[in-house]
Structures are given as C-alpha cells and as structure tokens.
Amino acid sequence: MKPPRWLAGFGRRKNLGQTPPAPDIWHWLRQAGGIRTIVDIGAHTGEFAQFLADYFRPERFLALEPLPDCLPALRARAKTIRNLEVLPFAAGLKPGPATIHKNPYPPASSLLPLTEISRREFPQTDGLEENIEVEVRPLDSLIQTTDLPRNILVKIDVQGMEDQVLRGGRYLFGAAHVVLVEMCFAPFYEGQPLFEEIHELLVQMGFRQGGMRNQILSPRTGQPLFCHAIYIRARA
Description:
With 236 residues, this protein is α/β, with parallel strands linked by helices. It is 26% helix and 27% strand. It is globular, with a radius of gyration of 17 Å. It starts with 5 loop residues before the first helix and ends with a strand.
C-alpha cells in the first residue's frame, strides 16, 4: 500500500563506489535459504515478483493477485519468470465472493475499508474508491504444498488481511522456510491486525523474526508506521 512498496523497501542497496558491495539481506537469504519455490501473495503487476525470480531463480513461482487490472501485466511476466503460475484470487480465510475497495492509488486497494490514518499520512490514498467483486480462497485450498520443491519463500503484501492469509494457509506456512511480510504499527484499515498480532501468529507457526529490512516513519511526526519484516523457520 504505502510507498515505498516491496521493491523499494526490500530492494538491494546500490553500489555507489568502485569496491564490491557488502553482503546484504538478499545475499544472506540466497546463501542460507536454498529457495526453490516462491509464493507471492499480493503480487500486483509483478515488479517485486520479477526481482525475486531474477535473484533466487526458483523452480516454482506462484503469484496471487485479485485485481483484474493488474492481471494482464502480471501474466505477461511469464515471458521472464520461469514456471510462473498466476492465481487470480485474494487469499483469505473464508472462500467465496468479496468486495475489494479499489483505491485511486491501486497498491492501497484492500478487502478492508481504509481508515483516516491512511488518508492523513498518505494523501494519495484519499480519493473515490471503486468497489469490485473478487473471489477469496484460503491458500490451503489453492496450493498443494506437497507438490512444491523445498525450500519455500512466501511474500505477503495484503493490506490488512495478514491474519486471515496466515490462518487460511496453515499447511503452506507449516512448510515454508522464509516469510517476507509487510506489518503495520498503526491501523491503515478497519479491523487490521497490527505488528504484535501477526508476529505472535508467525511464532506460533514455528518462525522466529530474522530481521527487518526497513521501517517507514510518518513524514509528519516521525512515528513508525509500518515495516518489512523477515521471518525464518525456527530450528529445534
């Protein structure tokens, strides 16, 4: 939702000098993770999916995106993302039709209504929304986890639906090795779970927090608003 999105927030640092760049989070994950499958939940038009595919070279790549306007560009990435499978659904807990609030700033679109906090902190989200019907599916009804090569990396960027995505994908997350998730410290959507709730769910699923790529502050007050967090499968 909030700028910068995944590519900016999780992107690799630029090498501005002549010396080789120091190892970063992506280098660590590639060396330690052995990632062979990527599941991108909330893929939008696939900008970050392309980065992940280029960097990790997975054998399987599943991308979920419910917004019809995003799907042509996302599907076109099959030319450059090997074995890309596009699933035109919103991940959630209860299957069936649902209304997504398409925001004038499309990455802010959500199944949950926007709050005044978002409009105040990010004025580009303050505009007339269009209601679109989409299909919601639990991840475990869409993805046969036993068919996915290990290790699995899951990226979550779902605008306030993080808890429902996790609860609807217990088998998938039970098999995952790495989770990249956007988590908020302030509610940008009505009924949105905040950082501590999502952290607790992930810990219950057997993950530990492996780090944080960045933390976005309010341009008005400096208050932390959201972050891009990394969770790793805890080892016994």
